[in-house]
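Z., the sequence and structure:
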Amino acid sequence: MTKAKNLNLFAAIDVGSSKIAVCIGHVRPDGHLEVVSFARRPSTGVHQGIVVDMDKTVREVEATLRNAEAHVSSPIEDAVANLNGNHLSCLNAMGSSVTHKGEVAEKHVKQALYTAQAVNLSAGNVMLHVLPQQYIVDNQVGIVQPLGQAGKRLDANVHMIMASSNAEQNLTNCITKCRLPNLQLIAAPLASANAVLDDASRELGVCVIDIGHDTTGIALFVAGEIRHTAVLTWGGRQVNQDIAKSLFTPPQAAAQLKELHGSVVGHELDESEITVPGVNGRPDTRPTKSIFSQIIRAVYERIFHEVAAEFERHDLSAEFASARIVLTGGGSKIKNLAYLASEVLGLEAYVDHPKVSPAPNAEANGDWAHDQVFVADGVDATELNDPSMATVVGLLRRRVVGRIKTHQARTAKTRGVTSRVARSTYRWLGGNV
């Protein structure tokens, strides 16, 4: 792989329950994002999006970073990671300010956003994002950029995402211990949406359902605005567990069988048999594909019913009913899942994945989207185009219009030749110091 030199690099880090994925990228002179290195490894220190073992997570993140950094020569200047878990909650609110001189200035926008945040946070919660939806100047609605607008009153509709302060701090500590500067955290459902949506789909109305290993992220967009975000504690792990319990087979075998024969529809009348390994020396069993499909289908039906219930609890059923469903994440790769989602939710659904392409030649004149992601020579675009990579590719775009808190690494003050040498020595020793 070609060594990347003299680039303003940043790291996108997906800290998941089944994997740690790291993309190191930069912004090309033409404004497009380019991935210059990619690495992944299994994750064992995270459960349902929450760090449950700090030491394991630090070691796994550091090891994945070390693999990715082996192919670049420039230092990483920034980092962005996903914050996941059902502790994430959201609220839509409005803030206001008075312009006095009849023209909206930056201070008025800040004041409107500030007053919108005047909510009582639950104990132990922090504000993660304050995302402007639209502005209203006097009675003029639908304003995207209010600066310079004539008017006496500015109202700001915002979408706020709150998180557990403990979950946020634990993830921050894990990543900053890996000596990464300027860390930003983005709610996982927003990151996944970044990877699979464009402006047109947001404008038409869409609900992204990211089915991960043991969480399912939800992001609803209405008329181009983020309206609701949530994380459910259901995912692909539950499918594996139900297969293992129902057929009395090891979890590893259940996961392999799901990949080989998994389908949520299409096997209803299929009486052909599959071989299921027994546990602790017990003989193999041979259930039909029809039975196997019914086990998997039951879990995914429950996931989709939980999604619908989430919107009912927040009085958003009407907005949800007018959206299309976009399925992504590793759990979306099960056969015929879009058909089942349409059947259960009564909405048009399809499975989507990140759009990553090999970097074009200098003389190429392709009609590329403004937010297209490319990969440098030596990086496999096919691997990043998998639905399971939606979060890490979405983190690369860092497309969150609003507040993103930045966390300084503990070694930020000593960055320079000494700190780079120390980090290189740390990597050379395998992180065992």
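The CA atoms of residues 136 and 155 lie 5 Å apart. The chain is about 30% helix and 25% strand.

Let me know what you think.
H.
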